[in-house]
Design goal:
heterodimer; A: alpha/beta; 11 helices; 10 strands; disordered N terminus; B: mainly alpha; two-stranded antiparallel ribbon; two-stranded antiparallel sheet; 3% strand
Chain lengths: 280, 354
């Protein structure tokens, strides 16, 4: 388990020892093997395999409709692929369910914000810790000792995440009232609250201005560096992808057409063709 | 007065997470409860207890129950009077067949039986939502109406099909005057309000609200939809079962299955819509609105001397009642509780603009 509870002042520490604190990239933690996914007659993903190594930042890129979001949905069990398996650590799953993925330590954020709009920022992030909260229904109803202590313990963990993401001023605001950039942070906070080993980010920087993107990049890298959380992200902004990722997987029309370091991918003929088009 | 939070700094999470974090709110609430226990019993008349206050307390309890399901978990039900019926008939049978049980135990058992039935009829919610679920819960209503009218065992083979109860005795306290009933109902309602508050701010409540707001995201975060939805149906039906037992024993005294028909289900739904979905306070306000308004509409013309025939008065009552509901929904779709919240927020800053 990556030891989350996030430190209070992550940025300062990072600037001093950024290269040293970097976790070494480890063995394969998550592998997607020959996955195919169809919706009726539409092939969203066909026979895609790739591996994610522990502590790395892996970017999945590709044109619109390439199957990137579907890929994430397959990994954490929202979609069940017709073929293929997901291997997480040493276990292979034909059928992944969202609950199983979450309890094994795979968290994710969403492309078009899927926050709980009626709930406050604190409550939203607290839901990320629901899996760890064990108080029974009677104990909660009467809010007797253990139930209350449990709430307080998890609230402390959530406050550390709030500090880390610098959203202290908004903790009691219903998220529906927050501006878009802050909602994206809350989404990240909710995923972090579950102390994941693997964090799937679906376009964390979509629709942001340059400053907000820089902030978000910082948060993503900080999470990766301090807790060794493995990160799989989908992103359209190529400069961001090239800067922060260790490896890049390129999808096009549901097939994998590239896999390698940012530099390799940048010069790959198939990838350039997919992005710029080919002359026929 | 309006800068109430000033100077109240929380230094522990426990202090920040308590039910009413602001000192003045706590005193206000204590004052209201003291007033309800000490002043109201001596001021109100029997008529007031029987036709307004006691029904208000019981229906509030049922409305809280429905609100936990519809307002907090986002699962619609238009068959909740059925679960009140299960509570009422379960209590009746328990009192008839196991006479030595304390009424408090009977209430809890009646609630548990209603909860089981509620969870059973909540199973469709795992696959369907919205209007389709509404239709499925309607089945609970019709099935319940049918079973209590046809299966004589439930009514202890009463010839007329209606059942009647003796006054409730609690230890040595016989609840036979409206005032006694009021005090008992008030106590029950306060306990159940606290429980509802605690549930909704615990992790179960967050699971419900997460399911309501964005079910896919809730699932991805590790909340089991089966667990969230069925517990919501269970707790909600438990509340309605207890309310049904109280309605039968302390309000009606004797009743037939029609006492818990579709109209009552709709009334409960109106209460939480008008009062405010996802708000315990809203359940109180909505129940007060629905209980008091018809009586007020009936009484006011007579009081101010407008001569109306009884039939005319009844029709006007319906018309005004209906139009008020529509008006309310148009002006404030989030109900009376939201009006209250907006007022409070404005008063925090008043008279300054920001």
């Amino acid at each position: 388990m990556a030891s989350i509870p996030v430190q209070a002042e992550p940025r300062a520490t990072v600037e001093h020892e950024a290269p040293a604190s970097r976790h070494r990239i480890g063995p394969v933690i998550l592998a997607v093997e020959h996955v195919s996914l169809r919706f009726g007659g539409v092939k969203a993903i066909s026979d895609v395999s790739f591996e994610v190594r522990e502590h790395e930042v892996l970017a999945i890129i590709g044109p619109n409709g390439a199957g990137k979001s579907s890929m994430l949905n397959v990994i954490n069990g929202v979609y069940q692929p017709q073929q293929g398996t997901i291997r997480f650590r040493d276990r292979t799953f034909d059928l992944m369910t969202p609950h199983r993925a979450a309890s094994m330590g795979i968290a994710r954020t969403f492309q078009n914000l899927a926050l709980f709009k009626g709930m406050t920022v604190v409550d939203n992030i607290l839901t990320g810790r629901n899996l760890r909260m064990k108080a029974g229904i009677l104990a909660q109803a009467l809010r007797i000792g253990p139930a209350e202590r449990e709430e307080i313990r998890h609230r402390e963990a959530v406050e550390r995440i709030i500090d880390f993401l610098e959203i202290q001023a908004h903790r009691k605001t219903p998220v529906g009232r927050l501006p878009y950039g802050l909602q994206k942070r809350v989404d990240l906070g909710r995923a972090l609250a579950s102390e994941p080993d693997v964090l799937l980010l679906d376009e964390p920087m979509a629709g942001m201005n340059v400053e907000e993107k820089q902030d978000m990049c910082r948060f993503v890298l900080d999470v990766n560096e301090q807790y060794g959380t493995t990160i799989v992200l989908i992103e359209h902004d190529m400069s961001v992808v090239m800067d922060i990722s260790d490896r890049v997987v390129v999808l096009d029309y549901g097939r994998k057409i590239g896999d390698g370091t940012p530099d390799e991918v940048r010069h790959d003929k198939a990838v350039i063709d997919a992005y710029l088009g080919t002359t026929h | 007065m309006f800068f109430r939070e000033n100077g109240q700094f929380k230094s522990t999470y426990r202090a920040d997470m308590q039910l009413l974090p602001i000192v003045q709110d706590r005193w206000f609430m204590l004052g209201v409860i003291a007033l309800a226990f000490l002043a109201v019993p001596f001021v109100a008349t029997d008529y007031l207890f029987l036709s307004i206050i006691n029904p208000f307390l019981i229906l509030t309890l049922a409305a809280i129950g429905l609100n936990l399901l519809v307002g907090y978990c986002g699962q619609i039900s238009i068959g909740h009077a059925a679960f009140m019926a299960w509570g009422a008939y379960a209590a009746y049978n328990l009192v008839q067949r196991v006479p030595m049980l304390n009424f408090l135990v009977v209430l809890v058992l009646a609630g548990l039986i209603a909860a089981l039935v509620g969870m059973f009829f909540g199973i469709p919610s795992l696959r369907i939502k919205g209007l389709y679920l509404a239709v499925a819960t309607l089945a609970a209503q019709f099935f319940t109406d049918w079973i209590f009218a046809r299966v004589k065992w439930f009514t202890n083979y009463a010839h007329s099909g209606s059942v009647s109860t003796a006054p409730v005795t609690l230890f040595d306290w016989t609840l036979d005057t409206p005032r006694d009933k009021y005090l008992f109902l008030l106590g029950v309602l306060i306990v159940f309000t606290l429980i509802a508050k605690n549930l909704t701010r615990g992790h179960l409540g967050r699971a419900w609200m997460a399911t309501r707001d964005m079910d896919v995201a809730a699932e991805v975060i590790g909340i089991r939809p089966v667990y969230a939805k069925l517990t919501a149906f269970g707790v909600s039906s438990f509340y309605c079962g207890v309310a049904g037992a109280l309605w039968g024993f302390l309000q009606l005294g004797s009743w037939e299955p029609l006492a818990f028909d579709l109209n009552l289900s709709f009334s409960l739904l109106f209460m939480i819509i008008i009062g405010g979905m996802g708000s315990i306070l809203g359940s109180y306000l909505g129940a007060a609105f629905i209980v008091v308004l018809p009586i007020a509409l009936n009484q006011i013309p007579r009081k101010i001397g407008v001569p109306l025939s009884t039939a005319m008065a009844a029709n006007v009552e319906f018309m005004i009642f209906g139009s008020l509901i529509v008006l309310f929904l148009v002006l404030e779709p989030h109900g009376l509780a939201r009006l209250w919240a907006i007022g409070k927020e404005k008063l925090r800053l008043w008279p300054f603009p920001h």
